[in-house]
Amino acid sequence: MSKLLAVVDGTIRESMAKYTFLAFMLMSTLMLMLLTFAVNLDVVDGVLATARLFGQDIHLGGQSVSIDQLVTGFQTTVAGLLFVVGLFLSIFATANLVPVMLEKGYVDLLLSKPLSRPALFLGRYLGALSVVGINLFYLVVGVWSVVGIKTGVWRPGVLKAGLIILLTYGVILGFMMMIGVITRSSSITIMLTYFLFPVTLFLAFREGLTVMLTKRVFVYLLDGLYWMLPKTKDVFTIMASLAAGKPAGSLAPLLTSALFGAGCLALGTLYFTRKDY
Amino acid sequence: MAEHTLQVQDLQKTFKTGWNREPVRALDGITLTVGRGEVFGLLGPNGAGKTTLVKVLLGITRLDTGTAEVLGRPAGDVETRTRVGYLPEGHRYPLHLTGEGVLHWFARLSGVPRAEILTRAPRLLDRVGLSRWAGVRLRKYSKGMVQRLGLAVSLIHEPELLFLDEPTDGVDPLGRAEIRRILLEERERGTTIFINSHLLSEIERICGRVAILSHGKILRAGTVDDLTNQGLAYRLDAGPVPPEVLESIRQLATSVTANNGSLHLRVPSLEGLNACLDKLRGAGHLIRHLSEEKSSLEESFIKILEGEETRP
User: Fold this and answer.
1) H/E element holding A57?
2) Could you tell me if the ipTM is greater than 0.90?
3) Pick from A2, A109, A276: CB nearest B86
4) Smallest Cβ distance to B105: which of A6, A105, A116?
5) Any idea where the domains of chain A sit in the sequence?
6) Which of A41, A35, A32 is nearest to A66 (CA)?
7) pTM here?
8) Are the CB atoms for B149 and B100 separated by under 8 Å?
9) What are the two backbone dihedrals, phi and then psi, of residue B148, each rounded to the nearest 5 degrees?
10) B90/A104 Cβ within 8 A
């Protein structure tokens, strides 16, 4: 167990040494400082009376906004941005973790250690998941705390959304690790992972396309692909609902996406275990 | 307790390369044993299969047929690796870590308890001459420093068996001497050392036994003396020898050559050597110097490989 933790720890340190995560941490800190020190909210009877940024009034358009709506809206926006930007940055920053591990001279050293190959691969996975989790929850928990302290409204939506984003990253990471171990290339891993997003978006809107398909077999094919691949659009909807404090609805997209990630991770582990280096 | 540290029997490994999956026989029926506490050198030209053999023994590459045991367990056994150190050729360490950080991390991967790491790491860094560089990131290290750090990493868990693949590669003569000193210390400690190298002078100085590998096959194995011994060949210095004395010696020896006042003799037996000496002394020559002739390991290595090349 201590050796597995050493792999996790090593992966976290390796990732944290990258500028992408440092930049993400810096941006998160700036955003939290802005929220803490620059934004002033005056709340009267649960309704936002005035809002100021750096002492300047923000025009609310004459509408009365309840502080509850404001907090929920803000948290949903942060969660939505994190889903897109956070995932994009995380993929970019961790796509090379497996190809780097497989470089000649490094993989030999790692494989000569008293650690099974599945444990080594899993340790790498958990390390990458941890480093993204740390970055994600730094911002999510920070936003939740600052907004809660400033408004007195403590909505757990953004925290739940954070968990969904981490789970989505976990699914994508499983795919990246499988591609990484097979191709040993960071650039191919990044390209194929980014390519997965438009494909899954296209499949999410497959029902509108079925009328154009001439053969029934293509409909089944699209359906099959939809259920096999991660459902980023549907997962985004679940995440947004949770962030807004609404019920998530069916969790099937989430569970089948998780299954895809687990399957990719298992295939990647199997390939790594059987390969000669 | 296993009798041998390493025992390999009829080991075969074939790789498939290229788009057409062309088979390449990397190891072809390797059989060898390495005893406990022995320093064993594996020599061979590039592509002979030296690194593949070590990788098979460590489980980094799997064998096709044959058997291989390391410290009494099948090659690749995960738990056995706690007792094995490895310095691969062209090793790479995470560049964001310091020398001390690398040592700590690999010690943890080897299962060394934290308290032990804290005492062993500074001692080992001092031993390889990197104490002053302990807190410096690896990207500032020279190639020789990284090589010495690699040696420290391979020793941090105090292994019983040490695999070194080109340990002095890229190291200056001073650094090479340092590495040699450390390896001799390890030998004194009873560590079994298996060295892959094409720096034959290094091997000659450290190893007790060597094997020469070419095209995946062991061509010769034995002690360094076995490989460098030319049989009953001697060089003697007895001043200028007149032709008639030389002729009488030729009748007793297998071959005689005179060169700048020295005689190079090849004799069928020790008695033959003594008879030659008697002839010289009888003719009034004083023997000033007599030594057994040996070729260097490099010369023997080239001869053995050339023999392999010319074999039909």
Assistant:
1) strand A56-58
2) no
3) A109
4) A6
5) 2-274
6) A41
7) 0.85
8) no
9) -70, -35
10) yes
